[in-house]
Structure formats: structure tokens, C-alpha cells
Design a protein that fits this description.
With 355 residues, this protein is α/β, with parallel strands linked by helices. It is 30% helix and 17% strand. Strand 6, helix 7 (268-281) and strand 7 (287-292) form a beta-alpha-beta unit. The relative contact order is 0.19. Bound molecules: zinc ion. Zinc ion is lined by residues 163, 176, 214, 324.
């Protein structure tokens, strides 16, 4: 899949210069893009004053209807389907805990909730203390490992913390934090199979509930993705990174109006593979109508040469108004969106297994 807009986007002078939070520079005609560049770094979301919203506000469709890929019908294996009702129920339960920022009591409750749902699985902790501009915080990445017969690892990350600066605002992060936690729990259900300790037929799959994805003050390289940065460093030292065939991040994937952006801070072949998986399932209209460079939990791995994809819908409500706002609540989400992303990623794993 090739988007002609890529060449246009590469001409944007703003892209590498703005020290921004979740940066998204959408595929715009150059004149519009230059106008957007002037606005870089300017907060536009009154409800997220501490975590400055920095994305370009307009989006231009890359292509109205993508052409089917020849690879779309290349495999006869049955298509995967998650239990989206169950995944939605997880999202509801996680959200009902309330704000789940680092160091909070609700965060501890959620840690227990996640681990309780992984009984019988191989679970590992990556726990440490983060020294931040707001003080020290306990950080805990929770890793569930599902061993495979093939040599190599597919890693799926999803953050479970909610925004610290919004801790007293009523922000509960149904989509941002809730949906990612829940979809990973449902992946675990799908991956553990019979539970008899049998290896899956393919690569090992590791699910990681990452902690400290959100900035404690304002998004910078050092105030963001605390858990992912720690894990990337650790896995570089112990040799794990070399074994990773693909790493995919799930973030804000529950929006009822699902519109997954093609995050150009990723490996093009992996982004294309995800699109092909979506095509096989007939879900492609929810993928890649817009594209841009978004920073998220994958960045520490991207910087170390791991093939990554960030599966994110950073177009949440009109003009992304629900993002980092108390409006990020269950009524904005749909089980159908969890179904679309869940099935697509399981199919992507299946396709990776065959490579
Ligand atoms: Zn967020």
C-alpha cells in the first residue's frame, strides 16, 4: 500500500523540530501544512492544559477508498474473531475504577485486576522507580508470555496508566488507558488456547501492559513512556530486542467512530501488513484514511531498530476534543471497534507467523 501523500508530508519543515507530545502531522497540501507548522506546540484543548495538545487540527483523507491488495485473499486459514463483548466489559470494569495514574491506589487495584486475569499464564514484572519532574513514582510493566514453536517474539504493548496531570479533573480514560488494557486482556484469552501449556503454532507472543506512558507534566522525550523506555533499555542489554520480529502498540482503539491513523513513526512493511489483515476481514475503511507521525510507547523501540507499528485513533470526537478530557468515557466507545482492531491484530499475528 503506497500513499502518494507521503512525499508531500516529507516536505514539512516542522516535523522534526517540534518538541511535542503525541505528534501528529497529517498529510496536508504543503500550504496548509505550513500553516499548521506555525501552530505547533500550541495547546488547543482547555481540558488538557498540563498535557498540551499539539496535533494539527485538520485532516485530509489520503485516499477515499483503498484498492484491494493482491495479498488479501492469499490464505485460507479461518479468520480470527475476538470476543468483543467480553473485551468491552473489561474496558467498563477498568474505567469504573476511576483515575488510574501512577502511584495511585486505583493504579494498584488495576495491577491486581490485570494479574488476576492472567492466572495460569507465564507472567513477569518489570518494576522500577521513575525519577520524574513531579517526584519519584513506582512503575510496573506487566508482561504475559505465550510461548510459540518458532524462534522469535511478537510483542504487543498497551498502556494502563491514566494521565497524571488530569488526576483531579474527573478524567477516567475509558479509551485512553481503558481500551488498551482491555484489548490486551482479550488477546491473552485468545492466545492461551486450551491452557494445557501447549506452545502456540508460530512465534512467541508477549503482551505488555505498560505503565507510565503518559507524561507527568508535559510530553518530552524524558517525560513520557517511562515503562516502555525502561523495557527497551532492559531488552537491549539482555539480547531480547534482537529476537523481536514485530512490536505493535494498541492505544485509544475503542472510539465508536474508529479511524486508525497510519502512524509514520513505524515500519512501513508492518503498517502494510496490518492493512492487509484489515482487508482480509473487510475492515479496511477504518484504517489509514489519515496519516501522521505520532509519538507513543513504540518510540524507544523504534529508536533501537525494532520493527514497530502504533495502532492508534488520535481522532477522538470532533477535532479530537474527547482526548485527555473528562469526556473520555464509556459512552464514546463501541465493542465493534474493539472487534475491528482485535481481529485485525490477531490476523496480523497469524500473517507474521507465516513469514
Ligand atoms: Zn493519553
Amino acid at each position: 500500500m503506497k500513499h502518494p501523500a507521503i512525499a508531500i508530508r516529507q516536505a514539512l519543515p516542522c516535523v522534526p523540530l517540534c518538541p511535542l507530545w503525541l505528534k501528529i502531522y497529517l498529510a496536508l497540501p504543503l500550504t496548509v501544512a505550513l500553516a499548521s507548522a506555525a501552530a505547533c506546540g500550541k495547546g488547543t484543548n482547555a481540558n488538557a492544559s498540563a498535557a498540551v495538545k499539539t496535533e494539527a487540527s485538520a485532516a485530509t483523507p489520503v485516499s477515499p477508498e483503498a484498492a484491494p491488495s493482491p495479498a488479501a485473499a492469499a490464505d485460507n486459514a479461518p479468520l480470527p474473531h475476538i470476543d468483543s463483548k467480553r473485551a468491552f466489559q473489561y474496558t467498563r470494569e477498568v474505567t469504573a475504577l476511576g483515575p488510574r495514574f501512577m502511584g495511585s491506589e486505583n493504579h494498584k487495584k488495576l495491577e491486581r485486576y490485570i494479574v488476576d486475569h492472567l492466572k495460569g499464564d507465564e507472567v513477569e514484572d518489570d518494576a522500577f522507580t521513575a525519577d520524574t519532574v513531579e517526584g519519584k513514582f513506582p512503575v510496573r510493566n506487566i508482561i504475559a508470555k505465550f510461548p510459540g514453536t518458532k524462534d522469535g517474539i511478537i510483542v504487543i504493548l498497551g498502556h494502563y496508566d491514566t494521565v497524571y496531570p488530569l488526576r483531579n479533573s474527573g478524567f477516567v480514560g475509558a479509551n485512553d488507558g481503558g481500551s488498551s488494557t482491555a484489548i490486551l486482556l482479550e488477546y491473552a484469552n485468545q492466545l492461551r488456547g486450551g491452557g494445557s501449556g501447549k506452545r502456540r503454532d508460530g512465534y512467541s507472543v508477549w503482551l505488555v501492559w505498560t505503565d507510565g506512558e503518559e507524561a507527568v507534566k508535559t510530553w518530552t522525550d524524558t517525560d513520557s513512556v517511562y515503562g516502555a523506555r525502561h523495557l527497551a533499555e532492559k531488552w537491549e542489554k539482555d539480547g531480547t530486542l534482537k529476537k523481536i520480529k514485530a512490536l505493535m502498540v494498541m492505544d485509544m482503539i475503542g472510539d465508536a467512530d474508529l479511524d486508525i491513523q497510519r502512524n509514520t513513526n513505524g515500519a512501513p512493511w508492518l503498517l502494510d501488513l496490518i492493512y492487509t489483515a484489515a482487508e482480509r476481514l473487510g475492515y479496511q475503511s477504518h484504517f489509514y484514511a489519515r496519516e501522521g507521525a505520532i509519538e507513543d510507547d513504540h518510540m524507544p523501540f523504534v529508536r533501537r531498530g525494532v520493527p514497530c507499528a502504533d495502532v492508534i485513533d488520535l481522532d477522538y470526537g470532533y477535532n479530537n476534543v474527547f482526548w485527555h478530557s473528562p469526556q473520555d468515557t464509556m459512552d464514546k466507545l463501541s465493542p465493534k471497534s474493539l472487534q475491528i482492531v482485535g481481529d485485525t491484530i490477531l490476523e496480523t499475528i497469524h500473517m507474521l507467523d507465516q513469514r
